[in-house]
Specification:
Helix content is 46%, strand content 15%. By secondary structure, it is of the alpha/beta class. The N and C termini lie far apart (54 Å).
């Protein structure tokens, strides 16, 4: 039985991970859960899964949660230890009761807890792509040093990972990273400028949280995944192609040096990549409806190039990936601030694109290229980029 701690248990990946646990009670036990502020859902999860520890970064919400816990009167229920404050997710992640930390927090806030968990010898089921985008140069060597498993949960990276099982690294020619194209596939630049928040939150194939849904609509999500794949699989960003595949049946592909192409297929559900990561190196038993190659969804599988003259953030991500160092962290921080501002209806959809480009252009000058970066370098660049983005938003 594997013991899990889920960072970000109230988000989309966290709740689906708990669905896997619920359907496989003999294989997994939940030792820790964390959230930022959604304590009502967290309380429900605690009652159902009985973790020993929880972490709530919002201190007011943590006190409220502790008061609610005191009101529970269920036979055999043991109140969990409650961690709170800036370091609470790290405190939860290093707990001795845990075998696998499911890193499903949103944004760069997941970086330090993942590093701390790796240092404590925990395997990481990684759903937080920003961890590698901002800190891949630190995280990947640390994974190797500590001899832990970094298990990709993103559907695309999980697909690539599975295609590479048993293959020699030197046989890999290219990674073909698939993308649905988002809700605005085929739009012109002028059409993109009139997109509303409700339009951007309507993803055509995937059900995800607000931040990642907006990232998918701008194609920044795919740019982040290109950088993440570069770190995960040890290739340059220029050996990774983004392939728009609207049906979301093929989750990604690899091309080998002899020209062979291997693909991983399945329904657009995060349950499968979560299971692949949690059961590795074994396979669990299916509990979803089986994939049917004769269904209507599979009758018309197509591939397209992404129009980067419209979705300019994808090209920007490639550029930042080539520069390396703190540049991906700067891009990611500017994007997070811009997206959250858009989600609050403070700026327009196209402002997200303009802000991220502007911050990257402004901060690129004066960067020391090819220098080894530290966690402090990454976090300070992240904060500087956030300050600049907030200032640009305020002055709009």
């Amino acid at each position: 039985m594997k013991r899990l701690t889920i960072l970000g248990s109230t988000g989309s990946i966290g709740t689906q991970t708990l669905e896997v646990v619920r359907n496989n009670p003999d294989d997994f036990v939940v030792e820790g859960l964390s959230c930022s502020s959604n304590i009502d859902l967290l309380l429900d999860q605690v009652v159902k899964f009985r973790p020993k520890n929880v972490a709530i970064s919002n201190e007011d919400k943590a006190r409220e949660f502790s008061n609610k816990i005191e009101q529970i009167n269920i036979s055999g229920f043991v109140k969990p230890v409650v961690y709170t404050g800036k370091e609470c997710n790290s405190e939860l992640a290093v707990n001795d009761d845990t075998d696998i930390v499911v890193a499903s927090m949103v944004g760069v806030a997941g970086l330090r807890p993942v590093i701390d968990a790796i240092n404590s010898g925990k395997d990481i089921a990684l759903a937080n792509k920003e961890t590698l985008v901002a800190g891949g140069d630190i995280v990947m060597p640390l994974v190797k040093e500590k001899k832990v498993n970094l298990l990709p949960v993103d559907s695309e990276h999980c697909a690539i990972w599975q295609c590479l099982w048993g293959e020699k690294k030197e046989n890999l020619d290219r990674i073909l990273l698939t993308a649905s194209g988002g809700p605005f596939r085929g739009y012109s630049l002028e059409q993109l400028k009139s997109v509303s928040l409700s339009d951007a939150l309507k993803h055509p194939t995937w059900n995800m949280g607000g931040k990642i849904t907006i990232d998918s609509s701008t194609m920044m999500n795919k740019g982040l995944e290109v950088i993440e794949a570069s770190h995960l699989f040890g290739v340059s960003v220029d050996k990774i192609d983004v392939v728009v595949h609207p049906q979301s049946i093929i989750h990604s592909m690899i091309r080998l040096k002899d020209g062979s192409v291997l693909a991983q297929m399945g329904k657009p559900s995060m349950i499968m990549p979560i299971m692949v990561a949690l059961y590795y190196p074994e396979r669990g038993n299916a509990f979803l409806e089986e994939f049917d190659p004769f269904s209507s969804a599979c009758s018309n599988i197509t591939f397209e190039k992404c129009d980067t003259s419209v979705f300019t953030l994808l090209d920007l991500a490639y550029e930042c990936g080539r520069i390396g160092g703190v540049m991906p962290a700067i891009m990611n921080a500017a994007n997070e601030e811009a997206v959250f501002s858009f989600l609050r209806n403070e700026i327009s959809f196209y402002d997200v694109h303009l802000l991220v480009h502007s911050v990257c252009d402004n901060m690129r000058n004066g960067l020391r290229m090819n220098d080894k970066v530290s966690l402090e370098d990454i976090l300070s660049s992240d904060e500087e980029a956030r300050r600049l983005t907030r200032s640009l938003i305020k002055n709009k």
